Amino acid sequence: MEQLVLSDQSAAFLKEAKKWAYFLAIMGFIGTGLMVVAGIFMSVIFSVIDVFANIPDKPDFPFGLIGLLYVALAVVYFFPAYYLYKFSSEMSQALLVRDESHLSSAFRFLKKHFKFIGIMIIVMIALYIIVIIVFVIVGVTSALSTNTGLFV
After folding, report:
1. What DSSP state is assigned to residue 2?
2. Cβ-proximal residues to 22 (8 Å cutoff; 6+ apart), any chain
3. Count of CB atoms within 10 A of residue 55's CB?
4. Which letter does DSSP use for residue 149 in this model?
5. Quick check: is 2 in a domain?
6. Total number of domains constituting the chain
7. Which of 115, 82, 93 lies closest to 14, judged by CA?
8. Domain encompassing residue 47
9. What is the pTM of this model?
10. Which of 2, 3, 85, 135 has its CA 20 to 30 A from that of 77?
11. Backbone φ and ψ of 151, nearest 5°
């Protein structure tokens, strides 16, 4: 099997890519942290409002759970940022010492990042389709159950 040799231009491209990956990873970590803080804040605020507010006809929904949803989403968003960070750090080592094992590890983390993002996109598209179908069904049944004259 022939060895892969990186040209100086390829190494320069990878060096620039690792810098952008590092930047995006740090932004992802900051965004994840802000989501956790916002989730905790919303849980506390909504729980306090739920307990102390005397709102007539208030729905019986625990609005504090919305904050927990934010924290759960922050956990999901953490992994792509982590994989990008690991790609960047492994690529730094690979370029510094010209080590193929670090290069392979860097690309393994990059593959994990893209695979995770791809699965997230597939899940989101599926959820959108399900929500649209449910809304159409609810709308049609609502229109049929009332005497609006739409479906005569």
Report:
1. P
2. 84, 85, 88, 89
3. 8
4. S
5. no
6. 1
7. 93
8. 9-145
9. 0.81
10. 135
11. -120, 80
Q: Is residue 99 part of a domain?
A: yes
Contact 64, 50 (CB under 8 A): yes
Q: Give dist(CA 135, CA 34) in Å, integer.
A: 32
Residue 152 falls inside a structural domain? no
Q: Give which of 15, 4, 2 is closest to 101, Cα–Cα.
A: 4
Token pair recorded at residue 5: 């040799």
Euclidean distance between CA atoms 92 and 97, whole angstroms: 9
The pLDDT tens digits for 83-138 are: 999 999 999 999 999 888 999 999 999 999 999 999 999 999 999 999 999 999 99
Q: Let me know if residue 70 belongs to a domain.
A: yes
